[in-house]
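Table S2 (continued). Query chain:
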Amino acid sequence: MTGWKRKDLVGLRDLAPEEIRIILDTAKSLQEISLRPVKKVPTLRGRTVANLFFEPSTRTRISFELAEKRLSADTISFTAQTSSTVKGETLKDTVRNIESLKVEMIVMRHSASGAPHRLAETLPVSVINAGDGINEHPTQALLDMFTIREKKGKLDGIRVAFIGDILHSRVARSNMWGLTKMGAKVVVCGPKTLLPPKADELGVEVTTDLRKAIKDADVINLLRIQTERQSECYFPSIREYASHYQINREVLEHAKPDVLIMHPGPVNRGIELSSDVMDGPYSVILDQVTNGLAVRMAVLYLLSGARKKTGEKHAQPTH
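Corresponding output:
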């Protein structure tokens, strides 16, 4: 935990490479907890974490909830569809009510870019961004980097190709910030209408040519077409998109023989990638899900230490 001093984790854009390394190394040390007969440590015993999800989520929400249970935290789970927000309660009032319950941490997903940042600036408790609009999804990028490092042994010099809806992808943004900081080479590929303007200024390669993007890639990370975030039509049809940008066995003939196939989920089979590739030997998609638990445990653990008052004893996991 040495070196970690931040109260919150709202994005990777402002993190130093050493801070990213601390999270990844801590996650590695916490992996074995899930292999124990009793999958629990007392690290966050007596602390309360509120999970505030204003958007639908399966993997991220369940992963955070399980990570909190592994660390013995008490949890409050909030979903907008079953809360007072449907009756007109504002985000500010909702959070104030949650804060009045004396929680120590808030995990937040919201459709508005920047919402967790505003929360972190105004609240004394730790805030973790579980995805905000089209801005960032830091823990997803961290688990992606963790998986790449686990499978390839390093991040420095690794070439990662992101294929799909880059424009609306918070996962792509966090990965671009994180991977380039760690020395990886990033290429983004998709229809021109789904590529963010000035993406090359972020230190990544930009192309609309799928075969060019994957030719020397060590990792191919597929991104879902996010129709729920699109206010207009960005390509003729889903079939048209799949014919040009789907990863299937034929396309993989142009890739490295040891390439990794990744996807943050949910996967639209037959669109961004074919079922045989998703379920095949190249895919590490389920490994990403598994590693997400260790990464989110690490974030909770590090932030709990950063908030620790002087003289307060903190139960650390034994390894």
